[in-house]
Amino acid sequence: MESEKNENLDNEPNSVKLKYVKLGYHYLVSNAMYIFLVPLTIASTHLSVLSVEHFIHLFNYLKFNLLSVTLCTALTVFLATFHFMRRAKQVYLLNFVCYKPEPGLMFSQEAFMETSKRNGSFSEESLAFQKKILEKSGYGPKTYVSKSLIDVPMNQTFEEARKEAEMVMFGAIDKLLAKTRVNVKDIGILVVNCSLFNPTPSLSAMVVNRYKLRENILSYSLGGMGCSAGLISIDLAKRLLQVQPNSYALVVSMEIMTLNWYPGNNRSMLLSNCLFRLGAAAILLSNRSSDRRHSKYQLIHTLRTHKGADDKCYNCVIQKEDMDKRLGISLSKDLLTVAGEALKTNITTLGPLVLPLSEQILFFVNLVGRKIFKMKIKRYVPDFKLAFEHFCIHAGGRAVLDELEKNLGLSKWHMEPSRMTLYRFGNTSSSSLWYELAYFEAKGRIKKGDRVWQIAFGSGFKCNSAVWHALQTINPKYEKNNPWIDEIDKFPVYVPKVAAIVS
C-alpha cells in the first residue's frame, strides 16, 4: 500500500507537467492567428514611410484603369450580395416549458410494484426482475405516470390515452404562450413528436384545433422515431424556418403511457414498463432577427446519425408482439454497444464543426498514426469540454449515462443535470433533454456565451445532436413555470447504486 502511494507521488510531477504542456499547446494553437499577425503588424509599419507621391501615383494608375476598377467593384458587390442572400436564416429559441404533472400522478417504486402485483399477469420471476431493474434504475420516489395506470383497475382505453395527450400537450403549450406572449396566428410551423400514440386526427391537428392556428400552417406529426425524436423535430423546424420568412415554429415533444403498458413476461419487453415516465416539453423557435434580443439561445448546429441500414441497430429497440401476442417494446442486450457506435459516428462528424483547432490536430495525428502507420496507440477521444460548457445527455437510463460519462471524459458536475433528471422525472423519452436544460437554468448555470450540447438516442437506431449558444445569462429569479424552480435547492441528491424497495 505504501509503495503504491509512493508511486502515485512519484508520478504526480509528471502529470502536472503534462497538464501544463497540454494547456500551453491549446493556448498556442488557439491563438495562432494572433501570433501570425505579429509579422504582418511589423510589415505594416513600413507603410507609414510611404510619401504623398506614392499615393498620387497609385490614384493615377487606378484612374487610367477605370474599367478594371469598376468591374472589380461590381463583382465584389455581386458576390457579397449573393453570399448574404444565400446565407441560412438564424434560428432562435425564445423560450421553452417542461410539463410538470400534478402531485397525484407521482408513482414511487413501491407503488409500481404494488400495481404490477395487482395486475395479476406477471409471474413471480417477472416481478422479481422488475424489482431488480427499479432498484438499480437511479429513479427517485417522485416520478410521474399517467392516471390510467394508477386507476384500479387500469383504464387503458383509447379515450384515456387521448385525454393524457391533451393534458401534457396543452399544459405545456398554455404556459409557453403565457411566457412568450406570442400571438398564435403568428405561428407558421408546428411539429409534434410522439412515438407510440398516433391518433386520427393527428396530434398536430389536435393542437391546431385547440388553439385555432391559421389555415396555412405547416403542421407535422412524427411517430415511431423514439427518444431522439425531440431533436429530429428541432432539426425539421430549423430547416423550415430557414425557408419561411418571419415565422415562429412550435415544437412539442412527448410520449404517452396509457396504451403502452406491457402485461406479459418477456424480460426484454418488461424494461419499458420500468423505465418510461410521464412528461412533455413545448419549445418556441423564431427566425425573426428582431427576436434575437428576446431569445434565450441561438441554434448553431443540428446533426443526425441514422444506423438503420444495419440489422442489429434496426432491431435493438423494436415494438412487437411476444409469444402470447401481447404488444410491447423490446430492448436488446446490444443497446449500449449500438448506442456507442452511433455516438462515435455522430461525434466524428460533429467534432470538426465545434472543436478547437488544437483538438482537431491531435485527433488527426492520432488517426494517421493508427490507420496509415499502423501504430499501436490508443484511439484519441477529443476533449469536448473545450467546445461546450454544458451537456444535456438523454436520461435514457443509468447505464447509458455511465457509459457516456466514461467515454466523453465528463465530470460529475457535467453529468449532474442528466442524473438528477433521471432521479426526479425518470426517462420522459424525447422531452428529457429539456428537463435537463431547465435544471441548468434553475441552478443559474447558463451564462451569456455558453455553449450547450444536447445528445439523444432513439429507435432506428439514431443518435442526434443539437448545439445551442446562450444569448443571455439566465437568472433563476425570473424563471416562471420551470419544473425545478420550487425544489432546486434540494438538488443534487445522492443516488445509491442500489435503492432497496420495501415489499
From TrEMBL:
Biochemical pathway: Lipid metabolism; fatty acid biosynthesis
GO molecular function: fatty acid elongase activity
Any Gene Ontology biological process: fatty acid biosynthetic process
Pfam families noted in UniProt: ACP_syn_III_C, FAE1_CUT1_RppA
Keyword Membrane: yes
Family: Belongs to the thiolase-like superfamily. Chalcone/stilbene synthases family.
EC number: 2.3.1.-
Cellular localization per UniProt: Membrane
Beta-ketoacyl-[acyl-carrier-protein] synthase III C-terminal domain span: 389-468
Domain FAE: 84-371
Keywords assigned by UniProt, alphabetized: Acyltransferase, Membrane, Transferase, Transmembrane, Transmembrane helix
CC annotations in GO: membrane
First-tier enzyme category under EC: transferase
This protein's name: 3-ketoacyl-CoA synthase
Chain ranges passing through the membrane: 32-52, 64-85
Source species of the chain: Quercus rubra (Northern red oak)
Record field: catalytic activity: a very-long-chain acyl-CoA + malonyl-CoA + H(+) = a very-long-chain 3-oxoacyl-CoA + CO2 + CoA
